[in-house]
Amino acid sequence: MLTALTKAYQYLIYLGGFLKSPLLLLCRLYWGVLFMGAGWGKLVEIDKFADILHKLNFPYEHFFAYLAAGTEFIGGLCLILGFASRLVAIPLIITMITAYATAHVESLRTFFYNPSTFVSEAPFNFLLICLFILAFGPGRFSLDYMIEKCLFNRAEGIPKHQHKPH
């Protein structure tokens, strides 16, 4: 009986591996569009966004307004395409942490004793998806996968990332 359960569980893990790339694609598309929309909204109202940053005591508020808005817009586009996904996740993570540290600082302070407040803030899901993309990559349905396949097939001595289900 235990052997049958073990074998069934191993098949479940194997079949579940096939969901990785389609799920990562859906996440990238959905959150990429949301990032682009948020970035575009800030870009078209850049003075309004810079004023918000000024009220949050940001130095060089117009510079940081363009930096944050551009990061969100271009980062969202890269997520949609699956291009430089892990790389672009880093500035997006920094942008979301900065949003927590400035605009949502009270929620950040309650992280350990009231985590529901922290996770209910707008940056949380954006931050979470970026951490997932950084950790798991964009999956097979991405430009990164095609580039990696082409480059790593030619390169020697570089460890190759395995996309096969376990």
What report would you give on this structure?
The protein is mostly helical and 166 residues long. The protein has one domain (26-154). It contains nine helices and no strands. It is globular.
Q: Give the biggest beta sheet.
A: none
Total E-strand runs = 0
Global geometry: globular
Helical run tally: 9
Spans of at least 5 consecutive residues whose pLDDT stays below 50 are none
Mean pLDDT: 92
- Portion in beta strands: under 5%
For the termini, the CA-CA separation is: 23 Å
Task: Determine the structural class based on helices, strands and strand pairing.
Answer: mainly alpha
Radius of gyration equals 20 Å
Describe what is shown at a glance.
This is DoxX family protein. With 166 residues, the chain is mainly alpha-helical. 77% of the residues lie in helices and 0% in strands.
Would you spell out the secondary-structure blueprint of this structure?
Layout: H1 2-17, H2 20-44, H3 46-55, H4 61-81, H5 85-102, H6 105-109, H7 115-119, H8 122-136, H9 143-154
Helix pairs in contact: 2-4, 2-8, 3-4, 4-5, 5-8
Q: Characteristics of this structure?
A:
single chain, globular, 77% helix, mainly alpha, transmembrane helix, DoxX-like_oxidoreductase, 166 residues
